[in-house]
TrEMBL record, chains A, B:
Residues 3-57 form the HTH lacI-type domain. Gene3D superfamilies: 3.40.50.2300, lambda repressor-like DNA-binding domains (1.10.260.40). GO terms for molecular function: DNA binding. InterPro entries: HTH_LacI (IPR000843), LacI/GalR-like_sensor (IPR046335), Lambda_DNA-bd_dom_sf (IPR010982), Peripla_BP_I (IPR028082). Keywords: DNA-binding, Transcription, Transcription regulation. It comes from Streptomyces fuscus. Pfam families: LacI, Peripla_BP_3. This is LacI family DNA-binding transcriptional regulator.
Length: 344, 344
DNA sequence: GGGCGGCTGTATAACGTTGTAAATCGACGT
DNA sequence: ACGTCGATTTACAACGTTATACAGCCGCCC
């Protein structure tokens, strides 16, 4: 068996609690005593048993992070950011993936592992507000695009503004028929902030927001983007620009354009969202909205920890905006040049 | 406070242990009693406290998975496979990323969170055998490419054979100058099984294994592949094929070829490794060695659990081979056609 | 010089669960 | 009817930690 406080106490000839005090850096311990106990700790190679500590303290030191899918590099990079941010506070991260399925999201949000975790960071896709009524045995922080009016902290970039910046960029290039790829099939339209940004910016520019140029999809991967692009082209339309819900979809769309002999950006300009690494190495590099993933991860962790230490009821759930930038690359080369920045 | 066994026991008018017996499906409980206790459990919404259970049982129900980086989609997909496989056994996964830095890998392998986890699945990059001497407070399973002669289970595909299959494929296409991108800089060469496969197959075909066509890199991302490709071209060599350590590097390399006006596969054929989704949607889709990630994840989890239940010393650490296939796509279109399969 | 108060260190009781051993119960064979 | 035996249930003691309350001890003030 491993060495416990009791063993160390016996070895040092002091009480268990004194050892505990040394381990926890309790203030009132004589330097001499601290030294003596520490020597025993080192000699025996003692390390605290977290299960016991957590049982006693009611905290586990673990935060769960529930993401739709790890295959999407945006979420993978975000996960890395959360893990690092949590590590900075001595917290560790338990990873779940929901597949973006409502059932799984509900399960996770209801804390089906509530007894193991201190808090939950959830990036929902299909989750509906009513799924979240009065639960949360642990602090819950929401990430991402949906527009929830719920008593939980919510970390996101300003998706509407970011989408408008992307569409503005395309309009500045002189594009007039701008398709949107990746509206979520079967979900209430207004929830889709990026579609709303697309619509608002077109309208503001005096252009028609032609719903025939909006392609809904079931998923958000390369293949979904490719399907959507193909559907638009087969409908007889040929837009001069495409704004995709995310980078993998944009890249899938570009593949279809390539197959049909359409040149990017000459024939069709393409803008993605998330700025994943992959977009910087295709035959045509991809212009994209680049959310500050590190900030999002950090803010999410901090929000959880604030609730945790906040002794119960913090005044008001906060909606926190992270920064984003629009990074221009080859897929929208043209008149507009360089990188544009915007602050969230 | 939350409801505990004691509360349920009081509510049902029985002893704590009886409730515990019901919860744990203990054999000798009257159906009537079981029913009655269950009703109280449901009424109070009882759920076991894992910290306490684990303190008592010495198991946490958590497996740690330590990967070099989540940004690489191969590892992200592998993580998803491990999470699913663990879930099938009621285990949950704690995710770490080491950045492939030896220091971090040593830290993880030494079980710096040993008190939280029951087992560890580690995919090492820089870790050296001597770092693993006589530790393992918990079962350790190694993943991946390195060739360890150590008393730990090791799950991998046959990297040498897989690399040979890839090179064979290029040779079958008539290619004769085949570069290798992604030898690990500063590490002992023999450890690199994929380089060895490259060398062996060339030699077997009577071709020179020209070390001038091997490019070492520090990392394994798109940018590293691009750098390596650029260095080879700038050295004055122009190979007619490239075999990359992984897909991101292959894609980075293709980007450089594209920039220099070299056509894939006409001028240079390219083969990657890992078969990540991204490779299927570039302007030129990527031929790649496709490891069976689900199998690897499943086998790794099963190996950990076997040690865990194996009452201590299982006879011998096992090296388990997972399957792989070579999937041909546009980047090697030519004489050879279709998909080739190999069994690991 | 007696008492006060600030430092140190200690004994003890939890936290919620499960393993062990013992108590209870009913039925059965003699 | 009584002892026995197996099936069921219970009491109690852990698991390793920290919070609480308290016991010494010292110096210091009046």
């Amino acid at each position: 068996m491993r060495v416990s406080l009791k063993d160390v106490a016996a070895h040092a000839g002091v009480s268990i609690k004194t050892v505990s005090n040394v381990v926890n850096n309790y203030q009132h311990v004589t330097p001499a005593m601290r030294e003596r106990v520490q020597r025993s700790i080192d000699a025996l190679g003692y390390r605290p048993n977290l299960a016991a500590r957590h049982l006693r303290k009611g905290r586990t030191g673990i935060i769960a992070l529930a993401l739709p899918e790890l295959g999407n590099p945006y979420f993978a990079e975000l996960a890395a950011a959360v893990i690092d941010a949590a590590a900075a506070h001595d917290y560790i991260v338990l990873l779940d993936h929901t597949g973006g399925r409502r059932e799984q999201e509900v399960l996770v949000s209801q804390g089906f592992r509530a007894r193991v975790i201190d808090g939950l960071i959830l990036s929902p896709i299909e989750l509906e507000p009513e799924d979240l009524r009065d639960q949360a045995e642990v602090p819950l922080v929401l990430l991402g695009e949906r527009d929830y009016a719920l008593p939980y902290d919510h970390i996101a970039i300003d998706n509407v503004a970011a989408a408008r910046a992307a569409v503005r960029h395309l309009i500045d290039l002189g594009r007039r028929e701008i398709a949107f790829i990746g509206a979520r099939r079967g979900r209430s339209e207004p929830a889709q902030l990026r579609v709303r940004g697309w619509r608002e910016e077109l309208t503001a520019a005096g252009l028609p927001a032609d719903e025939g140029l909006v392609a809904a999809t079931d998923g958000w991967g390369h293949a979904d983007g490719a399907d959507a692009m193909a559907r638009i082209l087969e409908s007889g339309r040929q837009p001069d620009a495409v704004f995709a819900y995310n980078d993998p979809m944009a890249i899938g769309a570009m593949r279809v354009l390539h197959e049909r002999g359409l040149k990017v950006p000459e024939d069709i300009a393409v803008v993605g969202f998330d700025d994943v690494v992959e977009g910087r190495f295709g035959a045509v590099t991809l212009t994209s909205v680049s959310p500050d993933k590190d900030a999002i991860g950090r803010l999410a962790v901090e929000a959880v920890l604030a609730r945790l230490s906040g002794g119960g009821e913090l005044p008001e759930p906060r909606r926190v905006w992270a920064d984003y930038r629009l990074v221009q690359r080859e897929s929208t080369l043209g008149r507009a040049a360089g990188e544009r920045s915007a602050q969230g």
